[in-house]
Design brief:
Low-confidence stretches: 4-18
Distance between the termini: 25 Å
Structural class: mainly alpha
Mean pLDDT: 80
Number of domains: 2
Helix content: 55-70%
Order of helices and strands: HHHHH
Shape: globular
Number of helices: 5
Radius of gyration: 15 Å
Length: 102
């Protein structure tokens, strides 16, 4: 196993569903998961994998996980929120320094 896989295996899942706080704070579990994904992306970019392949693999894996853990209506709401964010320009590469690097 490589270092990234070792780190991923060391992560212990925690129970409970946490939502964003009233003040917009991010739960520790979400922050931790995001940091692990950021490192995975950094690693794959370092391996010279094309950004489209990385994004497609992450999206496919995410959808698979969602399909195993929530109902179709909840998945559709999540995807609608993501689509709305893209349509509103919230995910424009100009606003994301990391995307510009890819």
């Amino acid at each position: 196993m490589n270092e990234l896989e070792d780190r991923a295996m060391a992560i212990e899942p925690r129970g409970g569903d946490q939502k964003l706080g009233q003040d917009g704070s991010v739960p520790a579990e979400l922050s931790h998961a995001g940091a692990v994904i950021d490192k995975a992306i950094e690693y794959m970019l370092g391996e010279q994998l094309p950004p489209l392949a990385i994004a497609s693999a992450l999206l496919g894996g995410s959808l698979g996980l969602l399909a195993r853990t929530m109902d179709r209506a909840a998945m559709m709401r999540m995807l609608d929120n993501a689509r709305a964010s893209v349509a509103a320009g919230e995910l424009d590469p100009v606003n994301d320094r990391e995307a510009g690097r890819a």
